[in-house]
Amino acid sequence: xxxxxxxxxxxxxxxxxxxxxxxxxxxxxxxxxxxxxxxxxxxxxxxxxxxxxxxxxxxxxxxxxxxxxxxxxxxxxxxxxxxxxxxxxxxxxxxxxxxxxxxxxxxxxxxxxxxxxxxxxxxxxxxxxxxxxxxxxxxxxxxxxxxxxxxxxxxxxxxxxxxxxxxxxxxxxxxxxxxxxxxxxxxxxxxxxxxxxxxxxxxxxxxxxxxxxxxxxxxxxxxxxxxxxxxxxxxxxxxxxxxxxxxxxxxxxxxxxxxxxxxxxxxxxxxxxxxxxxxxxxxxxxxxxxxxxxxxxxxxxxxxxxxxxxxxxxxxxxxxxxxxxxxxxxxxxxxxxxxxxxxxxxxxxxxxxxxxxxxxxxxxxxxxxxxxxxxxxxxxxxxxxxxxxxxxxxxxxxxxxxxxxxxxxxxxxxxxxxxxxxxxxxxxxxxxxxxxxxxxxxxxxxxxxxxxxxxxxxxxxxxxxxxxxxxxxxxxxxxxxxxxxxxxxxxxxxxxxxxxxxxxxxxxxxxxxxxxxxxxxxxxxxxxxxxxxxxxxxxxxxxxxxxxxxxxxxxxxxxxxxxxxxxxxxxxxxxxxxxxxxxxxxxxxxxxxxxxxxxxxxxxxxxxxxxxxxxxxxxxxxxxxxxxxxxxxxxxxxxxxxxxxxxxxxxxxxxxxxxxxxxxxxxxxxxxxxxxxxxxxxxxxxxxxxxxxxxxxxxxxxxxxxxxxxxxxxxxxxxxxxxxxxxxxxxxxxxxxxxxxxxxxxxxxxxxxxxxxxxxxxxxxxxx
Length: 768
Description:
- With 768 residues, the protein is an alpha/beta fold.
- Helix 13 (394-439) crosses helix 15.
- The chain starts with 11 loop residues before the first strand and ends with a helix.
């Protein structure tokens, strides 16, 4: 087809695609606002250029025979003012780069929205019309300049010449203004050079115009047919603008040199901007790649606390796609209180703030997160937004917990020999006095004195077991209460004393304890955790004194100040390099003998209690660890909350234990306080003896052969959902057992050995 397209007031758009579906889809989308012509391949498109004369060409990059890039080059060769929009479904960045370099106005990636298509076509038409208008204006102005130039040569009068020269200057400035409009808005260096060359050749009629980074030879610079203007800015030369008429042999008017030099100044600005734009684009691509490939979630948050950016790692950690996350309040994902506190710190000048949070999981195991927030400030210093970097530390915390347990088990293993020594001494006292009492049954005074010794020995053994169970977390985790620091120190000394007594006996090295406890206020904390921290510090100090020495423990408090605990030794000390890393997890100077977790755990416990810990040491001069805690400003809470004053009740109690001596003892203790007791030697026997409304309470041991206490309680609950159940155990309970206790509605758990008063109090509490 070669006929000329009929006149139309609508802009003309040529759609080129080798597939009918996309081609017709584009035609229907654009038909209401534009005069549309379609072509099924590159050759048909080139034929249409002659008769349809499109303003905009929309073409697919991937086409048979003549692909999109080759067709783009041919279109631009035929008419550089035609704007070309490339469409692709899978083009690489290199393909897109070649398309833009060869003059494509923009590219769209399939699938795209109708709004995006209409917007890019509208912008392409605006640029075409602006460029056509600018070129026409430049040609007109150049012609006017030449006419004025001719007049200046004809007029000889000085006054007339001055007026014409002024008009020439105005015309030059007009040309410069029109061309500079193209220069300033163009950021691609090749497009910039091509556009300037085309405009100068069309407007001033030069044979050739180039923007080059090379300086012409001296002979060229002295040739009247050649004008070379250096393109330079404050940072140095950027290239040269060269107008060359050697092909036609026409000399260049000297007055045009001034115009070209002024144009070179604009080119310097444009070239510098294009280079900066390229650097910014490279940096942007690098940062986008970095963010997309980062293993941590990187989330940008607007000042109104809504999510503005969401990388692939965030999708994986939060299990939320970017479409669902963008625009959502960040407090839907992070704890509102922690985030608000962190943001307030950033507003007041803190550069970064870190905290940890837990994310619920469908698998039941929560995801542990480490979150670092950093501020994004505006030019005036105001907070424009927040960047959140989030790490999944679930596996790390699980490993730490496992190693924590390993560390405690190692410590317990080291203490086992000393504990056995202590218990053998206690058993010796109990056995000795029991045999003496059998030999002297008529001596009441001796019997009373002997019973006091036996009771004291049993209580000492009970206290040792309590400390070991607390240390091993076999008793329920305490809430923060007001804690007596001096008692913590003394408990830690008691639990570690067998260790140093064993070292004295085995290594025959002198070890001395210097204990200096002062009058101090209570602190808020968990006694078990604080005892664990002190135990680790003491054991570390003992290991630091292989040749013996002195362990110094002290507590003190200045008036109104923090409570301070010091743990010092006279051992081998440490270098500055070791001192700086001593609290790092897994860092140890003991080789295979150490896990590197003792001091790390102590540090973690102290920080969780709002305290601080630091160490002073030099090689050969021992080490001193100083712990500081804020005072609680209140008295320590009693171990057992006061029970409301109610009338004492006699209870019918079913007692279950497979150890005959323990069963008999518990029955006798309850009967001595006035209760009616039915003993059962096993869970099966207890179930056989049980009937609803026959008993007010059931006290069962946990660790029993055959049917243990858990199984017995579950079967009993099936028979009677309301009877009060109490557990008693010599093993202890794990933290994860609490949910099971709540499910079975267990009223309480007693730890052997138990005193008669505590046993009766537990029964009374269960009856309430």
